[in-house]
Design a protein that fits this description.
By secondary structure, the protein is of the alpha+beta class.
């Protein structure tokens, strides 16, 4: 996957380029269950990263604008936090290799960062009203704006 260009969803089989606008995202994914959550934020249930089932959030900046800057991977239920963390970690390492930076994190979970071209991937757990897992891919939005 060329993450510098965008993200491949496996089911549904749709490639989402970083240059996608909110209206284009709706065209690509509305028939596949895309849900508008708030202005500039959408989610879908899908499979990616080698068949992993998850929720995928699309964050635009500014919320009324058309700069896709972050993909957020999450689950509807975290009944087994360790299993969830390990599954995300295993799938991301299979696709992107080992993280560039791994540090001890909160609650016994490592904090991992991949730096790939102008994309950063982060995976960590924090304690905010209980354990909260974060798995995100971020595009350096300043570089996107320069391309426009």
């Amino acid at each position: 996957m060329d993450i510098a260009k965008g993200f491949q969803i496996e089911d549904p089989n749709v490639f989402v380029p970083w240059s996608v606008s909110q209206s284009q995202l709706r065209e690509l994914l509305s028939e596949h269950g895309l849900r508008p959550i708030t202005k500039g934020y959408f989610t879908i249930t899908c499979k990616s990263m080698g068949g992993m089932q998850h929720e995928l959030g699309f964050h635009f900046e500014p919320r009324s604008g058309d700069f896709l800057y972050e993909l957020e991977f999450f689950r509807r239920s975290y009944s087994d936090q360790k299993k969830s963390y390990q599954e995300f970690q295993d799938h991301f390492e299979a696709v992107f290799g080992k993280p560039n930076i791994t540090q001890p994190g909160h609650l016994g979970f490592d904090s991992c960062t991949w730096n790939l071209q102008d994309v950063e991937i982060v995976h960590y757990v924090l304690d905010r009203f209980g354990p909260e897992e974060h798995m995100r891919i971020r595009k350096e939005h300043l570089k996107i704006r320069k391309r426009k």
